[in-house]
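Summary for the steering committee. The consortium agreed at its last meeting that each partner would contribute one worked example illustrating the joint modelling workflow. Our contribution is presented below. We chose a case with several input lines so that the handling of multiple components could be demonstrated. No manual editing was applied between input and output; the record is shown as generated.
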Amino acid sequence: MVFCSANLTNFGETLAIFVTVYALADCNNFFVSCERAFQPELEGRAVVVLSNNDGCVVARSNEAKAMDIAMGTPYFKLGKLVDSGRLLVRSSNYTLYGDLSHRVMNILREAVPDMEVYSIDEAFLNLEGIPREQWVPLCRGLVKRIRQWVGIPVSIGIAPTKTLGKVANHFAKKYPGYQGVCLADTPDKWEKALKLTPIGDVWGIGWRSAPKLQSSGVNTAADFTAKPEAWVLKHMGITGVRTWKELQGISCIEDEEPERRQSICTSRSFAEPITTRDELSLRISDFAGICAAKLRKDGSAAGEVAVFMQTNRFRSDLPQYYPFLRKRLPTAVNNTPEIVSAALALMDEAWKDGYAYKRAGVLVGETVPEDEVQGALFDSMSPEDRDRENRISAIMDKVNRSSGKTLLRVATQRPGHYADGIRREHCSNLYSTDWSELLTVK
DNA sequence: TCTGGGGTCCTAGGACCC
DNA sequence: TCTGGGGTCCTAGGACCC
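What follows is the complete predicted structure of the assembly.
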């Protein structure tokens, strides 16, 4: 993609065809909106969705935001509001959210030449080649269609860089006058927006940098762009300079859709802390098995396996221990038995009696495409044996894909039931997927 | 009692080589 | 003995994102 910001200002629209324009489509309060799509009684109410184990708030309706409920608030601090009936709560239901996300993305994908799915609820649409006067009508049409067909409210910000797209998107969300779509394609438009954007709201400026910038008198995005580049480099490093340029219409953040993830992590907190080696072994095996399945789904193999376990960091009265052990494999693999046994060996090495483990996980890294795996000179397993392990894993994937395992996992998701060690006391049904009928049985 | 999970990129510093 | 200086690789930690 070729982009030159100067074209916009210096040459007007004659060169507009060479200009990349991003339209950032972002679902509003996505998890809450998914719950509302099937439970209209949640409409207009203060609603929050909780993390795994009903630990803390990960999504809020506008009404909940207006009550000053912060992202990450622990659930137990909301008891009063919930008891009074002013706040409604749902456990997270990732099967439902993943399904609705696919439906939203499919509608977007059909409408534009190219797009990058950035997260479960966001995508950068590339409007290259679409005449400028059609941008807004096209995006308004998408907002309307997604609301009608999937029931999810979406906002779209259009701008020459991703960071400005985020800024425009915030405006589209905040002011109903935009009808869900805000166009910030010229400097006069985005400069106005930057003056109204607090520095901490800028994409790429996190909770550590924002206070530092404010103490230097940088309170808005416009204050930030007014600083010299050298100042930004000195105080924020190269990533800060990128954000600084992006806010001025100079695109620095490339679309790089990483086909293969470089590392994959599967970890959980436990509803009840684990104190025995056998019990933790079971969970570590699960996590390692999930990592192996994710690798195969990506078409990757991992050259490294790591395991970590953690005691409850909030319990300062208990002994703390946070081991993290890693091991290189003689050759990259993605079959379940080898990943599991490597993880269990690491866990055994790290294990210490006398601690209550609250969280643990398995991480696989150094991924390579599975068809480019190089055999190692000192590989402990013969090609024939590995071939057999790989075939077993392929069969497991097949079984898991067909209803068997899925049903098993789904069955554990009934409200209040946590056979997999995860607490989900306020979970909605799986409304949109095929086997949802099975779940309505209480 | 109860505080998520899964990623990426950058930088500084140590080890090692010539 | 002098203990320089550039390059590379690795690792740990920090910061950010959703």
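Chain A is about 40% helix and 20% strand. Chain A has two domains: 1-196+414-442, 264-403.
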